[in-house]
Amino acid sequence: MALTRINLVQRGMLALGGALLAALSSAAPAHAGYGQPDPWQMFLQNTVTPVGDFITSFHWGLLYTITAITIFVLALLVIVVIKFNAKANPVPSKTTHHVGLEVAWTLIPVLILVVIAVPSLRLLKMDVVPPPADITIKVSGHAWYWAYKYPQSEGGIEFDSRMLTESDVADLVKKGKGKKEDYPRLLAVDNEVVVPINKVVVLQVTGADVIHSFAVPSFGMKIDAMPGRLNQAWFKATREGVYYGQCSELCGKDHAFMPIAIRVLSQEKYAAWLAEAKKKFAAKDEAPARLAANETAR
Ligand SMILES: [Cu+2]
């Protein structure tokens, strides 16, 4: 009698766990957009870099693992409550030690942690040690906008990137420069960072005044922008498009209004953009020498 009840409970828990996992995995791609959040989005934004893809798969692997562990522990608790309560089990066992069991519940969690540590450290290394750079861009966080400097090889251009207000967007639309949907609210900027597809872009990130943080979810990238310190991040975007991010370190009154916009283009379109940009943002004299020095030091 008691046995059938336990079987029913166990079967119910398995079914529940299975349904939960199925719901999680099928919901993952359904509502996630590219480059910016979607209405009613759940889970992570779709990633377009090797590091971002690794972060996504590692996240899901961990979530499945922790779900299985939680369901297993819950099942044990339910079995104990049903099978060993005072009514069902009036004469409790006097056993206090079981060597096999104690070794098992020490070793199995250790093994699980070791298995998790392997991809975790691989991901850390991948993120921290960039491959040889095709382009190195210097990123400075200012209160409250971002400034970018391209290396000498890309004309040494530098520019500021500020958020477009709703009236800026209305002006642009009136001038025939795209539709309103092309400029997502609180994310679109006047000067986007433009990079070629499938190229390793190393970012040297610093803060010009206070601490900011340069974060682009689709690239799996987030790095502090500290005054007096040069932090390094990298990405290799494998899909064309515009990818938005935001400052992710509370830096002052307009913290929420200093978005990041990175446009990934084909090599040809990037070259065309660069030719235009060289005219638009004439390089300052001292900047190329400093950037060139940084490049040789790398
Ligand atoms: Cu900030």
Written description of the protein model:
The chain has two domains: 2-128, Helix Hairpins, CATH 1.10.287.90; 135-297, Cupredoxins -  blue copper proteins (Immunoglobulin-like, Sandwich), CATH 2.60.40. It has 298 residues and is α+β, with helices and mostly antiparallel strands. The protein has helices spanning 2-30, 50-83, 99-128, 166-174, 267-280, 286-297; strands at 135-142, 145-149, 158-161, 193-196, 201-207, 212-216, 221-225, 231-235, 241-247, 260-265. It starts with a helix and ends with a helix. The chain is elongated and about 85 Å long. The chain has a five-stranded mixed beta sheet. It has a five-stranded mixed beta sheet with strand order 4-10-9-6-7. The chain is built from six helices and ten strands; from the N terminus they run αααβββαβββββββαα. Bound molecules: copper (II) ion. Copper (II) ion (CU) is lined by residues 141, 212, 247, 249, 251, 255, 258.
